[in-house]
Specification:
Blueprint lengths: L1 H5 L6 H18 L8 H13 L12 H14 L15
Helix pairs in contact: 2-3
Length: 92
């Protein structure tokens, strides 16, 4: 979770996707990008902290892996009354 929230692109696929799908398109639209070392990581970190939410739920039963995969699949399909995630959702 710390790696996701850091906004650092190196080594974190989540940050790569956020930067590619949200941060860079916003920069292209605004036309206001002036290159500076670390700027894209800073903008990605700001985007994540401003626009995204994290939720954590612990399961300790013997079938916790099955429970988590089932919940993940339901979330991706938008079963809980919210739209499926933009980056890894599954169309119904």
């Amino acid at each position: 979770m710390k790696a996701h929230a850091s906004g650092r692109r190196s080594g974190d696929q989540f940050c790569v996707y956020v930067q590619d799908f949200f941060v860079i398109p916003d920069l292209v639209k605004s036309g206001s990008y002036l290159p500076r070392r670390g700027l894209l990581d800073e903008l990605t970190k700001d985007y994540i902290r401003t626009n995204l939410r994290f939720r954590v739920k612990a399961f300790t039963s013997g079938d916790s892996d099955r429970i988590v995969r089932s919940l993940e699949d339901k979330i991706k399909r938008g079963v809980f009354g919210i739209s499926p995630p933009t980056l890894n959702g599954i169309s119904t």
